[in-house]
Amino acid sequence: MKIIDATTLAALVLAVLFSTGPSKADEEKFITLASTTSTRDSGLFDFILPMFTQRTGTQVRVVAVGTGQAIRLARGGDADVLLVHHRKSEDAFVADGEGIRRYDVMYNDFVIVGPAADPAAIKGLHDAVSAMSKIATVKATFLSRGDDSGTNKKELSLWQMAGTNVTGASGTWYRETGSGMGATLNASAASGGYTLADRGTWLAFMNKVDLVIMVEGDPRILNPYGVIAVNPAKHPNVKVELAQQFIDWLVSKEGQDAIAAFRINGQQLFMPNAQ
Amino acid sequence: MNDFSSAFTAALSLLASGDADLAEIIALSLQVSLGAVFIATCIGMPLGAATALYKFPGRRTVVVILNALMGLPPVVVGLIVYLLLSRMGPFGVLGLLFTPTAMVFAQVILIVPIIAALSRQIVEDLWREYDEQLRSLGAGPLRCMATLLWDGRFSLLTAVLAGFGRASAEVGAVMIVGGNIDHVTRVMTTSIALEVSKGNLAMALGLGMVLIVLSLAINGSAFLLKESGLRKHA
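^ inputs. structure came back:
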């Protein structure tokens, strides 16, 4: 009696589990793209991915997380393609044999944003590093992503160049939100702090309150994106043909034109730069 | 307070426009959460009733563990399921990560303890009432369990609703195992988190209102069901 109960229960569980299973997935061609919150939150993917799908019939499923987490996803074999923005980690990913080859796709830049009151008096500076020093000197609130994302890595390298030890200041004027760009901008807006943001997310962000751009135009805060297909030699489940098809499209004239055509309020967010 | 009025407008216009994306998101939310509740009920109720009726060594420990697991953090459950279903994990070959199935699986783990612990309490209380009566009829433990579960069905509905509340409201687990992929694994709670991260607070709050209305509708129908059932048996 007990045994019958257990087996019927198990059958029932399996039936229901698989009835909600990836039935759609079996019929459609799709790839999983591990990417960053900046590319999704800015609206770029909503703009260009339908064009790719229309051209090729391949769906792109975007998992948008920080660059660090996106790379870990790909290292686990849970994504087919990686589109991120931290050159060092990208090169390491390829060098370790996890990825096949890195392609330039596009770039935009980072901006330092802050409250209009500007307690550190950095507005209009073109030197990002000295702006960061000034923020540290007056101990003005700075919101860090603190999530190992490409933006976070860039911000930490700026602090390093400025000679500021932010680890010791964490929890005082230096605050790590441990979350995405949008959430960190929300925190900046709410607490009147400075933060480093990629221009794409900044332009698309709707809750700016009194935040304005303080520093821009320093070549050290350029933000290049690279795309890499995950290596099937390491992860046999990877859909390498479809992944390559996606990369080929991104770096083609059509893909590059699509990226260039994406605008918010007439402003271009990403500059295509495929070789 | 501008945010609240624009959220209200956003919620109303979302509902009025019959937005296809919203319908898809609501449908998936219901599919995942109701699916999880169904499975968790099938597992949790017999488990709870058995813990109430069978005397076995370590029974008290099981009761305490079940009660404690009601507070399982969704993010931790999400992480565990993620590690199990990742390509590098033991069930990686199934390719279930970032699918609705993975989300159902995580939510089942979250709510089985809730339904089991609450069912145990309800059945135990009923047992005290009917103990002698059932024994005098010569009913075995399985027979008792079935009778008590049936007799307590209206109270047990509350246990199921508590499970549904948890499933439909949590974001931590479904975000990690589902990945919040548009048209594939995006549900109400992950959409809200996404709109917040876009700084679109009005839309986020609007979606929140839709979710609350949805939850009200489900709880309302459950209440009516219970009322009409009680009347029939009165």
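Chain A has two domains: 2-108+224-272, 109-221. The radius of gyration of chain A is 21 Å.
thumbs up if we can close this ticket
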